[in-house]
Design a protein that fits this description.
DNA polymerase, domain 1; mainly alpha; two-stranded antiparallel sheet; 4 strands; 52% helix; globular; hpI Integrase, Chain A
Length: 345
């Protein structure tokens, strides 16, 4: 393709220019990355570079960039008023690491300066732990609202909000016992975009509990009523969750509506994403194997699941110890049965 060949030639021209500024290089790298990553990911890259890298170190020459320059940038961002969060600075470091790794591959610099810089280690945010009573209060609060089915899906499956927004009726089995996660809807500056899930593990089938059936049946009946009332104004997309006229519901709007609903009902603040955490916590607490929970969540590995939900593990450890005691309850040695250590023979 002519456009692609021209883009490659431009990249080659950039690679030959060893006197370019970091700002110019990052512009070229963003153009390269735009065709290789998701739009939402690209917007994150672009924002980090525009807001923090360009103003701080953009005027430096790429070939003269040193780890101390990056370290100084991170320190200035953390000490400014108001300070940037450690998590945001870490994200900036990861973006710059990717960008400068590409400069090494293009032969523009010999080594990656970001490899010698140390970003802050952000504090892990405490997960909002919802128990069964808490999830029941939330379900009661959203009963009869336009997000009732979305909330029930999040609690019962652990699906991400973009996955819920992208779920179609054709992805749900006829008997409402299983759902295939094969699309996600993301909000971008240019509007909503529909994409495949990011990883292979994210593309998955989830068995649905009978608990969900009445929510799905009510949603389907409500859509049929609205389709009839709106007539030609109805936008048929086959979505399980819609904004009211058949069109896709912006995941950000779902979160905003959910937060407002809890506030009006006098309930503690919980993010919509925390319903996904609630599903995982409830399943692990009920004794469901972490591997199964990991598969339902679409995590890339079981390690992510165990690390994220380590707050559940202490009680599981106690249950394991108690179970072992039950197995060997009759095998306790008597007073005179203490074994004597004889030493090596």
């Amino acid at each position: 393709m002519p456009g692609t060949r021209a883009s490659v030639r431009n990249m080659q021209a950039v690679a030959l220019d060893r006197g370019m500024s970091l700002e110019d290089y990052l512009d070229a790298w963003l153009a390269h990355a735009r065709a290789r990553v998701r739009l939402k990911t690209y917007e994150g890259y672009e924002g980090e570079i525009r807001l923090y890298a360009r103003p701080g170190i953009g005027a430096l020459t790429l070939s003269e960039l040193r780890p101390l320059d990056l370290q100084g940038l991170y320190s200035s961002l953390l000490s400014r008023k108001p300070p940037l969060s450690g998590g945001t600075v870490l994200n900036l470091h990861l973006v710059l690491t990717q960008a400068l790794s590409q400069a090494v591959r293009w032969g523009l610099i010999a080594s990656n300066p970001a490899a010698g810089a140390q970003p802050p280690r952000p504090r892990r945010k405490e997960l909002a732990v919802l128990d069964q009573a808490g999830t029941e209060r939330i379900l009661s609060a959203v009963s009869g609202t336009k997000i009732e089915c979305a909330v029930a899906l999040a609690i019962a499956t652990g699906m991400r909000r973009g996955e819920i927004a992208g779920l179609r009726w054709q992805d749900v089995s006829e008997d409402l016992s299983a759902a295939r996660v094969c699309r996600t809807i993301q909000a971008t500056k240019g509007g909503l975009v529909t994409e495949e899930p990011k990883t292979r593990k994210s593309r998955r089938q989830i068995l649905l509990p009978a608990f969900l059936r009445p929510y799905l049946e009510r949603q389907k009946a409500d859509q049929a009523r609205r389709r009839s009332e709106l007539g030609s104004r109805w936008q048929e997309n086959g979505l399980v969750i819609d904004r009211g006229d058949g069109a896709a519901y912006n995941p950000d709007s779902v979160s905003s509506y959910f937060a407002g609903m809890l506030r009006r009902k006098g309930l503690p603040h919980v993010r919509f994403h925390d319903l996904r955490h609630a599903h995982a916590t409830l399943m692990l607490s009920a004794g469901v194997h972490p591997k199964i929970v990991s598969e339902r969540l679409g995590h890339a590995s079981i390690g992510i699941t165990l690390d994220t939900y380590s707050h559940v593990l202490p009680s599981m450890q106690q249950e394991a110890a108690d179970a072992f005691d039950e197995l060997f309850a009759c095998a306790e040695p008597g007073p005179g049965d203490s074994p004597q250590y004889q030493g090596p023979s």
